[in-house]
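Dear colleagues,

As part of the handover before I leave the project, I'm documenting each prediction I ran so the next person doesn't have to rerun anything. This entry is a single chain, and its sequence is reproduced below.
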Amino acid sequence: MPKHDWNSLQHYLDIHEKTLRQYHRYMETPRNYRYEQVTPSWHVLSCPMIIFHTYKGTRVRADIHKDIEVDLSNPKRLRARTFRYSYNANIPGKAVLIRYCSPHDDWEEEGSASHHAHHHRHDFATNPKGEVKILGPDNWPHVGEFFEEILNTF
C-alpha cells in the first residue's frame, strides 16, 4: 500500500491533529490546523508559523500547507489524500533550512518536475546554498516525519 494513499477524510484530519498534539511540547505556542473546504472535492489544511525549540536548542519556524483531494463517490464515507503540499523550515530572520514540495508550475526554474526537497547548507556565516533532491512520488515525508527531521537535525 502506498505511503500517501487514500484514507477516510475524518481519519486524515484526525491524524494531522494528533500529530500536532504529539509535538506541542516542542512548540513555543501550540498550534492547530486551519481547515477550509474550497470546493466539495478540494480542501485545504494549513498550519503556518509553528515555532519549534529543537533538541539542540535551535529556534526553527515550520510552515505546513496541504491541498486535499476528496473522493465524493461514496457520500457516506468520504476519502481524502494530499495532492499538493509544501513543508518549509527556517531559522526566523536568517535562512531556509529545508523545504519539501510537490510538483509545481515553476518547476523549470528549479530543475525539478517531481516531488522534491530543497536542502540548504546550514552554515549561517555565509549564504546557505540550496540543493534540490528529487524524491519519488511516494517518498516525501508525513508531517510527523518532517517534525522529527526538524527536531533532530537542527
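DSSP finds three helices and eight strands in the chain. The first helix runs from residue 9 to 23.

All the best with the project,
I.
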